[in-house]
Design goal:
heterodimer; A: alpha/beta; Rossmann fold; 2 domains; seven-stranded parallel β-sheet; six-stranded parallel β-sheet; 16 helices; elongated; B: mainly alpha; de novo design (two linked rop proteins); 6 helices
Chain lengths: 389, 181
């Protein structure tokens, strides 16, 4: 099948949506489909062969934060050209509700269109102002996918209408096959008064919740003095350490940015993976990765996390922002190897539905369904383009 | 002849411009509505195709000889009833088929009996999932058409023409728990 995928955000910036599109495109290519991804990117970025650049994205304030987006007539013309040249059987746009290449693609194309909605946001007044503009582009979408029940609810509230839930994919086999790194494991003989906690993410961002975990750390260290907290991800360690009492600073290790492989090996090594995120998560792909890597998970009780952890059956949870509860739960897990084993077993069951083999086959079902009864994707010729209607 | 723009003619020009703009808006809305109707027709075709695919998968499984005769008979008659049901009994018949399948495969051990031909069970599982997807997409199209048809201007100017108002398709399409992946 010839598939065109539109990425709304800049390819240079790492993010959940970009990773999802990359993995989906590569999985579909492996199955023998023809895939082209249209994304914004700076001129000097080296792109994979299946990605076509639509020019660079411009940072603009939108919906309370600064987003790097593509818009304007030049971008619109590029989108039309890409659709025309690609001669796709199906067009798959991501986040068409944002002022991005995806919205432009919906506007420019006719034919079978599939859209995936990733965000879970509270309803905002400013976004409501744009609703009618988005609505008419949205009417062309044949099939709407939400990445989680939570994202689906957001879609229903913001734009009305329904969507099917197909989660983000994870290469479960990749994470489960990696080996632990001995230096990240709890050393022999420290099982009684030690333990290893893991955290992965841009820890400078408040919503990632590292501060909650740090607030809980003194209580954990008091009960288990040789506990180590391994923090992987981008950020400034000095800024973080300044907020922590001096006596627990030695218990924290910063690993910096880690490769996918090291991230997976970290999951294999730690006793508990902690996700204290305070909000803004629509899915929680990191939890699925940690669970695939066999790390018992302790997460805040965000709606999105609770769904992935099956309400606590496949991972421990604590009330969002409650450092004392986090400390209590972490100590309970560290002191109970049998419970950790049980959680690992429950996890490997729970993550099966997120494996790319399952997710991609669902997405392909959707593609086949919309192409069965609708013609090719064609670019609409408009007056701005120099043509006539 | 020199054009003299009096207050009167300015008002006329303004009125004409407004009427043209209004006409353009109406025509744009009619285009949107037409597009939604086309989308709904496509979604209905897709849904019918998936329902047929599902009942075919059930029939094949029933005729495979891998199931006990009682289960096979229930499934075969359920599938046949769904295929030949007249339009107004369609939803009831498809729901009944879903329940037949659920009753037949409620016990995961039942799946063991069809081990010799796993592709039959696989096809049924896919068929059931696809019915769920197609039905959501169809009902979403129905909702979008209804919303626009309910618009005041669309009703006042009869932009929907004589196209009938199509109902959503409501059935029980929950697959058996043992099919969960």
């Amino acid at each position: 099948m010839r598939i065109g995928i539109v990425c709304p955000y800049s390819w240079d910036v790492p993010g959940g949506v970009q990773f999802h599109i990359r993995d989906l495109a590569e999985y579909l290519l492996k199955l023998g489909h023809e895939v082209s991804v249209l994304a914004a990117a700076d001129e000097d970025t080296v792109l994979p062969s299946y990605v076509q650049s639509a020019g660079r994205a411009i940072p603009v304030p939108y919906n309370g934060s600064v987003a790097r987006l593509s818009f304007g007539f030049l971008s619109a013309a590029r989108v039309r050209r890409w659709i025309h040249d690609g001669d796709f059987e199906v067009l798959h746009v991501h986040e068409p509700g944002t002022p991005s290449l995806s919205l432009l693609a919906c506007w420019a194309a006719s034919g079978p269109i599939v859209a995936t909605f990733h965000t879970a946001n509270p309803r905002s007044r400013a976004m409501l102002a744009g609703a009618p503009i988005v609505a008419s582009a949205m009417e062309k979408i044949n099939a709407r996918i939400a990445v989680s029940e939570y994202a689906r609810r957001t879609l229903v509230e913001h734009l009305g209408g329904d969507a099917v839930v197909i989660p983000n994919g994870v290469d479960v086999g990749y994470f489960s096959a990696l080996r632990p790194r001995p230096e990240w494991q709890t050393p022999r003989g420290q099982e009684e008064d030690g333990g290893t906690l893991g955290f992965v993410g841009r820890f400078g961002e408040p919503r990632k919740g590292l501060s909650v975990l740090l607030e809980a750390l003194p209580a954990i260290v008091e009960a288990r003095p040789r506990t180590r907290l391994l923090v992987a991800g981008r950020g400034e360690p000095e800024e973080v350490l300044r907020t922590v009492p001096a006596r627990v600073r030695g218990n924290i290790e910063f690993l910096g940015m880690v490769s996918d492989e090291d991230k997976g090996r970290l999951f294999q090594s730690v006793d508990v993976y902690c996700a204290p995120n305070t909000g803004g998560e629509s899915f929680g792909i990191i939890l699925v990765e940690a669970m695939s890597g066999g790390a018992p998970v302790l997460a805040s009780d965000l709606d999105a996390f609770s769904l992935v952890l099956e309400g606590g059956a496949a991972g421990a949870m604590f009330p969002n922002g409650d450092a004392a509860a986090l400390a209590r739960e972490a100590l309970a897990l560290l002191g109970d190897p049998a419970r950790r084993r049980a959680l690992r077993a429950a996890e490997s069951e729970a993550v099966r539905k997120y494996d790319w083999s399952v997710v991609a086959s669902d997405i392909l079902s959707v593609y086949e369904m919309v192409t069965e009864s609708t013609a090719r994707v064609t670019a609409r010729v408009t007056a701005e383009n120099g043509g006539s209607r | 002849m020199r054009l003299v723009l009096t207050q009167y003619s300015a008002a006329v020009v303004l009125l004409v411009v407004l009427i043209i703009l209004f006409g353009l808006y109406l025509s744009w809305t009619a285009t949107r509505l037409d597009r939604l109707h086309v989308r709904l027709d496509a979604a209905r075709v897709a849904l019918d195709a998936q329902l047929l695919r599902r009942s075919t998968a059930v029939l094949e499984l029933a005729r495979s000889g891998l199931l006990d005769p009682a289960t096979a008979l229930i499934l075969a008659s359920g599938a046949r009833a769904a295929e030949i049901a007249p339009e107004e009994e369609r939803e009831a018949a498809e729901s009944a088929l879903t329940r037949d399948v659920r009753a037949a495969f409620e016990d995961p051990a039942q799946g063991e009996h069809v081990r010799a031909h796993p592709e039959l069970l696989d096809e049924l599982g896919k068929g059931m999932r696809r019915v769920q997807l197609a039905r959501r997409f169809h009902n979403e199209s129905v909702r979008a058409v209804r919303q626009l048809r309910g618009h005041r201007l669309v009703r006042a100017f009869r932009l929907a023409g004589r196209a009938p108002n199509k109902p959503s398709f409501e059935i029980d399409d929950e697959p058996p728990a043992s099919f969960a992946r």
